[in-house]
Amino acid sequence: MTIGFSFRAAVSTCALCAAGVLIVTSPVAAAGRTGTDPGARGRPNASVPQPALLQHEGTQVRLRAGAPEAPKVSALSWVVADAGTGEVLAAHNAHEKLPPASTLKTLFALTVLPAFPGGVQHTVSAKELAGIGEGSSLVGVVEGHTYRVSDLWHGVFLNSGNDAVHVLAALNGGWDHTARQMQTKARALGAMDTYVVSPDGYDADGQVSSAYDLAVFGRAGLRNPDFARYCSTVETAFPGTGGGTFEIANTNRLLTGADGVTPYPGLVGIKNGYTTNAGNTLVAAAHRGARTLIVTVMNPQEGAGFEVYEEARALLDWGFDAAGRVDPVGSLDGLRPVAHGAQIAVPAAAPRTPAPPSDDWSQTGAIAGVAGLGAGAVLVGLRRRSRRLARG
Q1: How many CA atoms lie within 13 A of 357 on its CB side?
Q2: What is the Cα–Cα distance from 179 to 171, expressed in whole angstroms?
Q3: CA-CA distance, 311 to 307, in Å (whole number)?
Q4: Which residues are within 8 A (CB) of 76 and not within 5 positions of it... i.e. 6 or more apart?
Q5: Which residues of 315-330 are buried (b: 16+ CB within 10 A; e: fewer)?
Q6: pLDDT at residue 334, rounded to an integer
Q7: Neighbour-count burial of 181, counting CB atoms closer than 10 A to its CB (0-12 exposed, 13-18 middle, 19+ buried)
Q8: Mean pLDDT on 230-234
Q9: Beta 59-63 vs 235-239: how paired, if at all?
Q10: Do the beta carbons of residue 348 and residue 101 sit within 8 Å?
Q11: pLDDT: which is higher, 38 or 222
Q12: In the chain, % of residues over pLDDT 90
């Protein structure tokens, strides 16, 4: 591996850096009753946290007077949560263990992304590309070619490239080592439903996660501005052979507006996925006003292949409408300590292509959210017609 630091910037200075802030408040957590809590209707902000409902089956929501009903969606499991407070506004089978597909790459990024600065250069070997699952989505990593780590991360987040995941995992000490690290990371975050077998999310016996855990991973990822930058990038150039490049685009159609899916205003990302066993899965975050919401949608049972985006849209719309008019049914903080006083950075817009990577890796307690990405996607006119769904 060749180290190539230019020291031209300590921190990336892309358009994602103009920020406002939100303050994280204490979460609600415990165990308790099931279903909608009618006693919560008409009740102002409760001074004592109520028992969590997330361990129960079915849809869980506590509506106050005048709050809109939660939408009826077909996903086997879903969660709507506030990224700032960690409060879960509503959920359905939040802890049901299901195949996650490529949404598991959020945990992969949380685990491996801090290990290597984006400016590190690496020449790919044939061994590093061995063992990629049949039918996997690929970004086009080529044996013998030298890539920056930032290039590989673009391949992971935009194209869901399992080839890029394999190379990064090899740099990180190997496939099995990375899976064990991911497992440890999940437990440290209080994500108890996740079992990692294949770091790229490809279907594997016993590999599961949950809507709750994936929301935890998405929220944790947005604390890292580099994670936020990668997951919100609409399109960028990827190194090709002969010194050239080719364009790659994010397969999250709720971000790009491709294939006739209307982009969601203020969408941040985060990661979509599909495998035969998992169906369509999505972790998405959006910012509106002073609030950032995270939703997870796992395996819709109705509609066509893009129904996952429409169900996420319905849940985001409901969450922004219902915020402040529902009492939380649980918290994404789970077993973790509460981080009082942490901030959410709210950048003003997303670039068409990312800024050059930082050669020094910044660590921050801020959760980076991105506003106006749906509009940004419209401005770049990205209307890709790729009909292929990204596989694990």
Answers
A1: 25
A2: 13
A3: 6
A4: 93, 96, 98, 298, 299, 300, 301
A5: bbbbbbebbeebbbbb
A6: 74
A7: buried
A8: 98
A9: unpaired
A10: no
A11: 222
A12: 71
Calculate ∠ Cα 280-284-287, nearest 5°.
160
Tokens of 17: 């850096």
- Average pLDDT over the chain, rounded to an integer: 81
DSSP letters of 311-361? HHHHHHHHHHHHTTSEE-SEETTTTSPP-TT-EEEEES---SSPPPPPSS-
Judge whether 12 and 366 are in contact, CB under 8 Å.
no
Q: How far apart, in whole angstroms, are the C-alpha atoms of residue 203 and residue 276?
A: 8
pLDDT digits (tens, 9 = 90+) for 144-195: 999 999 999 999 999 999 999 999 999 999 999 999 999 999 999 999 999 9
Query: Rounded mean pLDDT of 234-252?
Result: 96
Looking at the DSSP assignment, which residues form a beta bridge with residue 249?
A: 235
**DSSP category for residue 262:** P
Amino acid at 35: G
Confidence band, pLDDT 50/70/90 cuts, at residue 340: very low
**According to the model, what pLDDT value does residue 353 have?**
56
Contact partners, residue 340, CB within 8 Å, separation at least 6: 24, 25, 26
Residue 83 token pair:
């990224």
Longest dimension (CA), the chain: 67
Residue 269: closest CA among 103, 153, 111, 389: 103
| Residue tagged 């990038």 (tokens) | 233
Q: Catalytic residue numbers? A: 102, 105, 160
pLDDT tens digit sequence for 283-297? 999 999 999 999 999
Categorize the per-residue pLDDT at 30 as very low, low, confident or very high, splitting at 50, 70 and 90: very low
What would the two tokens of residue 242 be? 């002969």
Omega within 30 of 0 (cis) for the link into 270: yes
Residue 74: count other Cβ atoms within 10 Å of its Cβ: 14
* Angle between helix 225-232 and 105-112 (nearest 10): 140
Going by C-alpha positions, the residue among 72, 138, 77 that lies closest to residue 102 is: 138
Q: How many CA atoms lie within 13 A of 101 on its CB side?
A: 25
Sheet of strand 19-23, all strands in order from the earlier edge strand to the far edge = 19-23, 343-347, 367-368
Residue 343 tokens read as 């901030």
